[in-house]
Amino acid sequence: MTITDHLTELRRRIIKSAVAIAMGMAVCAWQIDAIVALLTSPVEKLYVMKPAEAFMIYMKIALWSGVVAASPVWFYQFWAFLLPAFTKQEKKGLLLIVPLSTLLFLGGISFAFFIVLPQGLRFFMSFAMESVQPLWSLAGYLDFAVLMVVPFGVIFNLPVALVVLVRMGLVSSIQLKSFRKYVIVISFAIAAVITPTTDMISQSLLAVPMIILYEVSLVFIRYGLKK
Predict the structure, then answer these.
(1) What are the helix (H) ranges across 82-132?
(2) pLDDT digits over 173-197, tens only?
(3) pLDDT tens per residue, range 150-172
(4) Which residues, in sequence order, are bridge partners of residue 110?
(5) Dist CA 225 CA 172 (whole Å)
(6) Is 131 helix (H, G, I), strand (E, B) or coil?
(7) What whole-number distance in Å separates Cα of residue 44 and Cα of residue 124?
(8) Closest CA to 93 of 186, 226, 200, 225
(9) Cα separation values, 148 from 6, 45, 121, 166, 205, Å
(10) d(CA 227, CA 177)
(11) If residue 145 lies in a helix (H) or strand (E), which one and from where to where?
């Protein structure tokens, strides 16, 4: 394929993903009350500061929810765009890669929402005093939750990314093993940058699973794929 063909293919994949996200957004907007109730369940009370703020935030929540709901589609479009680099046999693996990527993405988000996010909220609540009470806005809480939750969905796809790189011949288990000490340092560095809290517990809840996923991937690549 020429560069023009690649760009045309990329545009087609992006359009399909955007349509899927728009459809997911429409469905989520229909159930927006239930979604907002779930997202705000970790906190007792939130506030809006402007008349139209609640509406705009609800639309933002519907958009993010639509992205999550449409994840099987845009994961398929993403991996399908890479098909020219795969062999005929490897292309069959797309039927496994897409659901696995989706499950890992949703699993990472769930782990972050139910375990990591409450830990981060408790960290900030610890600064409350009798004379200093938290008054959190819905917009501020949503931005915090997105920054805390979404990266986990991306990071949890590390095994899939590593397996694909190995199948494409770009890396091997020996090279990945030699990178181990750097991965540990980089994992904590990424956790420190991504997580909006400064406590080590919340950062470790991102860094440690990242390291574990790397080690699991290394074992699978070495003994499963024998690469």
Answers:
(1) 88-91, 94-111, 117-125
(2) 788 888 888 888 888 888 777 776 6
(3) 888 888 888 888 887 777 777 77
(4) none
(5) 10
(6) coil
(7) 14
(8) 225
(9) 34, 19, 10, 30, 11
(10) 12
(11) helix 138-155
Cα 144 from chain centroid? 14
Contact 77, 16 (CB under 8 A): yes
Question: What is the amino acid identity at position 189?
Answer: A
Amino acid letter, residue 64? W
62: nearest Cα among 18, 105, 32: 32
CA 184-72-35 angle, 5° bins: 90
Q: And the tokens for 44?
A: 């007792």
Rg value, the chain, Cα: 20
3-class secondary structure, 137 = strand
22 — pLDDT class (breaks 50, 70, 90)? very high
Token pair belonging to 110: 């769930």
For the stretch 48-89, pLDDT in tens is 877 788 888 889 899 989 999 999 998 888 888 876 656 666
- Residues 180 and 158: their CA atoms lie apart, in Å, by 14
Q: For the chain, percent helix, then strand, then coil, each to nearest 5? A: 80, 0, 20
The number of CA neighbours under 13 Å toward the Cβ of 103 is: 7
Looking at the chain, the number of H-run helices and the number of E-run strands are 12, 0
